[in-house]
Design brief:
Order of helices and strands: EEHHHEEHHHHEEHH
Number of domains: 2
Number of helices: 9
Largest sheet: 2 strands, antiparallel
Number of strands: 6
CATH topology of the largest domain: Arc Repressor Mutant, subunit A
CATH class of the largest domain: Mainly Alpha
CATH architecture of the largest domain: Orthogonal Bundle
CATH superfamily of the largest domain: Winged helix-like DNA-binding domain superfamily/Winged helix DNA-binding domain
Strand content: 5-15%
Helix content: 40-55%
Length: 219
């Protein structure tokens, strides 16, 4: 783009900046595609050799361009990070070419446990079990195996209990940007969960106390 100064000379307006931004977009596309995970803005800045502010501005513009193109790929912000992924509207077509679904299957027990962890964020096993009313070792371990939760350090309390929080995979799979986007677990929801657990325990009388229901349902 050219402008004319007061002396009638043609001056080029920020040619190098525009060129750098285009190259930055290409670099970011390569990084996001190759890593196939949520990438920190600082990592994108390092790859491009620019400052974090510039990297954030460029990746936000790139994500907007992907949205406007309404194509098969999208760049989603996940807890301040960015990840390239397939648009949800093409999931059914992907299923046709895979031998088996890649998404884990979650029982109601796992979904309840995941909801508690996502809303408490972070949460200890004791907090989870206090709400559910039964032991949740199986549920927590299974969610870790599925990559939906991870350890988030230890609580500064007697016994140093482990804290658990949702992973980037959780936010990507459920299509939310952060925990603020989730409905909160209020008294009514906690009461409903407790009622459901009581029914669950009564239905399984005679089985080992605290053993989680492993019946699977797809989500």
């Amino acid at each position: 783009m050219d402008i004319e100064d007061t002396r009638g000379e043609q001056l080029e307006l920020f040619p190098q900046e525009q060129q750098d931004y285009t190259e930055y977009e290409h670099i970011m596309e390569a990084v996001l595609f190759a890593l196939a995970r949520a990438v920190e803005v600082s990592e994108l800045a390092k790859a491009c050799g620019c400052d974090v502010r510039t990297a954030r501005e460029v990746v936000q513009g790139l994500a907007k361009r992907y949205d406007e193109s309404d194509g098969a790929l999208m760049i989603r912000e996940v807890e301040g990070k960015y990840q390239m992924c397939t648009s949800p509207k093409y999931f059914d077509y992907l299923v046709r070419v895979v031998s088996s679904p890649k998404k884990p299957e979650l029982s109601e027990v796992l979904l309840e446990t995941l909801a508690i962890i996502a809303n408490k964020n972070p949460a200890t096993r004791v907090e989870i079990e206090k709400i559910r009313g039964v032991k949740s070792d199986f549920a927590v371990n299974k969610l870790i195996e599925y990559g939906l939760i991870e350890e988030a350090g230890r609580l500064n309390a007697p016994g140093k209990p482990i804290l658990f929080k949702p992973t980037d995979e959780f936010y990507r799979r459920f299509g939310v940007e952060n925990t603020a986007s989730l409905p909160q677990v209020g008294p009514e929801m906690e009461s409903r969960i407790e009622d459901e657990v009581q029914v669950e325990v009564r239905d399984r009388m005679g089985e080992e106390d605290g053993k989680d229901d492993k019946d699977q349902v797809s989500f």
